[in-house]
């Protein structure tokens, strides 16, 4: 089992949990117990908190197939029928699957279903791994004790506490991504977040000079996770991992749980384009450079002889405000246009590359010779 915690303060409801599937067909690898490695293989995960409507969310811990069957059925039931069905599933599996039902306006209730019982109107409840919850509670107590001035609210402490549980690797069943659901905008929604773990490093320097701090590589133990839900599509939850360029689209199909589609070799900019084109989901920000994305993908397209795509991507890169790569981008674009027999346009971009960086003269000169020769033959 994994771990789901829910908390209610008046009308405000907050749920938080992990995505690890302990009944996954993927066999656990003892060498993959640290978090940075676990998040790099999201195949053995699923979103445990499902939003069924603006005022209804259901979380589960335990047997995912049973939970999936139950939650699909719940979409067409009244609240009393939902509670009866989930209790039935809990009893039938001998506690193998547990549930929390969160109801928003106008009832504002948390209902816990485990041990064959339906516990109504809870202010706080949990389901899943007992050891994980024990460590979570200990960590929460420490965090709140240290917050003497009460500068942080319950959701902030809960997120940090669950993250500490995961980072500790003391409870390997609790792992994956941290997913939160809240009704703080008067309807249930997934909460966006950016989580980064930067490996230890030494930074030295003097004077008012900015220092760029790397996100860190996966090999060094770094990870950067960008969770960007869209309120208009609660059936889809996009997550991107910077290290390794992995995009994950958790999606509910025909009322199911949100299962992952994994897009490898997909940087943050390309991932945002896929979400926009395929699902009309806007991504407000990315944690990587668009110009580097367009340039790298343009080079890949050029190497694959897809010159129209390469030209399109190079031009997108030139439209970005960053300037460091623009000499090389202009030169690569000129080459792609030359091989597409667009000689006058190639000439313009070759000259632009040279103007931006005179050190490119040997490459530009060779290209200009080719352009002039080709134009004479025309």
Summarize the structure.
The chain contains 11 helices and 15 strands. It is an alpha+beta fold and 378 residues long.
Give the arrangement of secondary structure elements.
Layout: E1 3-9, E2 12-17, H1 35-38, E3 49-53, E4 56-62, H2 64-74, H3 79-92, E5 97-103, E6 109-114, E7 117-119, E8 124-128, H4 130-146, H5 154-168, E9 179-182, E10 189-190, E11 193-197, E12 223-227, E13 236-241, E14 246-252, E15 258-263, H6 268-279, H7 290-303, H8 307-318, H9 326-339, H10 343-356, H11 361-377
Antiparallel strand pairs: 1-2, 1-8, 2-9, 3-4, 4-5, 5-6, 6-7, 9-10, 11-12, 12-13, 13-14, 14-15
Keywords:
single chain, 378 residues, Glutamine Phosphoribosylpyrophosphate, subunit 1, domain 1, Serine Threonine Protein Phosphatase 5, Tetratricopeptide repeat, 2 domains, 5-stranded antiparallel sheet, 21% strand
